Every structure is written in C-alpha cells, then in structure tokens.
Amino acid sequence: MDQAAGWLGSPMGALVLDGAGDHAATTGPVVSTSRSFAVAGWVTAAGRPTARSAVFSQAGSTNSGFTVRYDPSAADGAGGWQVEMPGSDASGAVAQRAEHSAYQSQLDWDHVAIVYDSFADVLRLYVNGWLEETEERVSARWHTIGFDATGPLQLGRTKTAGAWGEHWSGVIDDVWAFSGVLTQEQIQTLAGYTELPSDSPF
C-alpha cells in the first residue's frame, strides 16, 4: 500500500477493527459538536460494507453528536458515505444527513472528512478531498443544528438511542479533529493533494 503525500501515520500503525465490537476512543470529547468543527481520516475495508458501518462519531448520553458511516442504502440506494447529525441528545431525535456516493474499490483507501459550520448551519461531507455536486446530489446539508456531545470521539462505532452499534470492519488511520471550519483546500491537504508538514496540520 502506498502512502499518500499528506499521510502522517505509518500504515503499519493503523487501527484494525473486526466489526464485532472492536473500537477505539479518546479519553474525552475532542471538539464541541454544537460549534464549528471538522473531523477527517483515512478508511478502508476488505469489501464494501453490507450494513451501516460507522468510522467516526462523538458520543453523547443517548446519541452521538455526529456519525460518519458507510450506508449501503445511501445515495438513492447505490451505497456511499453518509454524515448524520441529530438535533438533540434524545431518543427519536430528528437527524440531518449528507451523502456522497464515492467509494473506492476493494482494498483502496478513502479519505473521509466532515466540516460543520455552526454559523451558517451547514454540514459538509468530503470524500477524497471533494464535495459531491451533481444534478441529483450535493454532499452538504443546510439548516443543520447539532447538540454538544460531551463524550469521547469514537473510532469504529456510534451510539443511537443509548445503544452502541454499527461497528466498522476494516482499517482506520491518520484521524484529525479541528475546532473551527476547514476550507476545501485544507481538506485536500489532509487528503494528500499537497505536502503536509510533520509538525503542523497547515
């Protein structure tokens, strides 16, 4: 496997998850999910997931404040990446979603990134550095207001209605989290379009 130009982590040090309960988590929250933030990382799997499978989320008491997942029913049933933000930390909360139909072939890596702009109430989903913008779909959702999930950042699972699930079977690497809004150019830097200094994200 070749290392992308902006990839800081060694492929040998990536997080490998079995889809049967494996996950990793920080000791606490990494961003305020009710304010502007961005989360990005590299993900891959042995094959296209056949069920909803989460790669990044940040836990609240009942729901995750956001979830980035692969959903085989997304993108009008074609399958693809999806970001979801519920409006509250309560069972049955209404969630806003953005979807992106891109997915690399088996054993290739996708760079998946979300940017939430709390001032504009916009949620954006980038795959391999790009928004999806077609006549049928834009991988952004307007009028999105999240709640502040104060639990740890989760890799490989998400929480819905108080229960953990959607365990990822595959590999996650080089995850970054930022307070504030990142531009598309900055997302593309993380995705390897330009060289990334080892001592600073930008």
Strand and helix map with partners:
Elements: E1 15-18, E2 24-25, E3 37-44, E4 53-59, E5 64-71, E6 80-86, E7 95-100, E8 110-117, E9 122-127, E10 140-141, E11 153-155, E12 158-160, E13 163-165, E14 169-179, H1 184-190
Antiparallel strand pairs: 1-14, 2-11, 3-8, 3-14, 4-5, 4-11, 5-6, 6-7, 8-9, 9-10, 12-13
Domain LamG-like jellyroll fold: 35-185
Protein name: LamG domain-containing protein
Pfam family, one: Laminin_G_3
Q: What can you see in these coordinates?
A:
The chain is mainly beta and 202 residues long. The chain has a single domain, classed as Jelly Rolls. 3% of the residues lie in helices and 39% in strands. It has a six-stranded antiparallel sheet, covered by helices on one side. A hairpin with an 8-residue loop joins strand 5 and strand 6. It is globular and about 35 Å long. The N terminus is likely disordered.
- CATH class designation: Mainly Beta
**Rounded mean pLDDT score:** 90
Rg over alpha carbons: 15 Å
Oligomer: single chain
The share of residues in extended strands comes to 35-45%
* Strand order in the sheet with the most strands: 1-14-3-8-9-10
User: Could you give the distance between the termini?
Assistant: 25 Å
What would the keywords be for this entry?
202 residues, mainly beta, 6-stranded antiparallel β-sheet, 1 helix, disordered N terminus, LamG-like
Short description:
This is LamG domain-containing protein. This protein is mainly beta.
